[in-house]
Amino acid sequence: MLTSRSGSSESRRSSLRTSPNERPPSSVPGNTILSERRRKRRDDSLEGEVSPAPTQRAAEPVASLKNLHISLERNGVRSDVLKGIDLEIGRGEIVGIVGESGSGKSVMTMSMMKLLPESSRPHIDGEIRAAGHDMSAISPKALRELRRHRIGVVFQDPMSSLNPTMHVGSQITEKSGSAEESIRLMEAVGIPEPRRRYRSYPHELSGGQRQRAMIAMAVAGDPELIIADEPTTALDVTVQAQVLALLKQTQQRLGCSVVMVTHDLGVAGQIADRIVVMNAGEIVEQGPSHQILSAPKADYTKRLLAARLSLDVPGPPPAPGVTSKGSR
Ligand SMILES: Nc1ncnc2c1ncn2[C@@H]1O[C@H](COP(=O)(O)OP(=O)(O)OP(=O)(O)O)[C@@H](O)[C@H]1O
Ligand SMILES: [Mg+2]
């Protein structure tokens, strides 16, 4: 079931119910009060902000990048990392971002949440819009609200995102606003014995369980968009498949959009409606997943696919500063 963001957030939230073969927690109160509380908290946090009208939100993509150029500095050397990206993420859509290491996938997704480190002195040219905000003009208050409730993130290494000194459940509650709701979410993402696990520290969970905890945290804010950056790379194949299935189910239950970053076209094909292929800071090709996988147009995509099929090296990497334009 895909529900649009214009539908009530209550209907979307209550659709994040446990599936029929999942047992609901014994004493979780109805969601209505929690939802009201969450809606109020969101309204309060937006008091005084010019927030986009709901109809406007429903009509516009959840995120859009227009002619985006980003350069970053490392050790005093500045390099062009994104070179004119145009991309829209539609409501309820799952978009796979694929490309080799260093192609700019993480920089692109981090820019949607204004998470690029100040230490790398980002120069940003072009337009970034996310959850109805122009990111070049967003206030600190609206940015906090966007990160807390409107965009959820799942990173490759949950240990780098989870606080090692805090119970996992309490970290989820910082976003969900209620321990009972957190326990419900922990159960929904398949963490066994969620009541007991609520008081576990991150290091006491397995890798797969930590990734599930990250997903619970990402969805706890009832987001419009989940950004998952290589969420399964560190996991073994079986757990990888489970986490991918969980992300897809979560997206269907919430009706939110998902941006799934991966270097693996096969992983993108398993989950995404649309695949965007990046190389050296540019989008070389994008289209429906089945089309990219069965009839790729760009030579670069063909090489990525061939590499996946044969496990051979996909031809020489582009020389530094050389874009893939010639091979489109
Ligand atoms: N903080 C930073 N400062 C300077 N350069 C950076 C910074 N972060 C990334 N870069 C550079 O930007 C380019 C794109 O990096 P990015 O992390 O987006 O690649 P990626 O496609 O996510 O790769 P991977 O698959 O390895 O995660 C790389 O050349 C990288 O060295
Ligand atoms: Mg990355």
Write the layout of secondary structure elements.
Elements: H1 9-14, H2 31-45, H3 54-59, E1 63-74, E2 77-89, E3 94-98, H4 105-112, E4 123-130, E5 133-134, H5 140-150, E6 151-154, H6 158-161, H7 168-176, H8 179-188, H9 194-197, H10 207-220, E7 225-229, H11 237-254, E8 257-262, H12 265-271, E9 274-279, E10 282-288, H13 289-294, H14 299-310
Parallel strand pairs: 3-8, 3-9, 6-7, 7-8
Antiparallel strand pairs: 1-2, 1-4, 4-5, 9-10
Helix pairs in contact: 7-8, 7-10, 8-10, 10-11
Bound molecules: adenosine-5'-triphosphate and magnesium ion.
Adenosine-5'-triphosphate (ATP) binds near residues 103 and 106.
The N- and C-terminal alpha carbons lie at a distance of: 37 Å
Order of helices and strands: HHHEEEHEEHEHHHHHEHEHEEHH
Q: Give the overall silhouette.
A: globular
SS class: alpha/beta
* CATH architecture label name: 3-Layer(aba) Sandwich
Count every beta strand, where a strand is a DSSP E run of 2 or more residues.
10
Low-confidence stretches: 1-51, 312-328
**Rg, Å, rounded:** 20 Å
CATH topology: Rossmann fold
Relative strand content: 15-25%
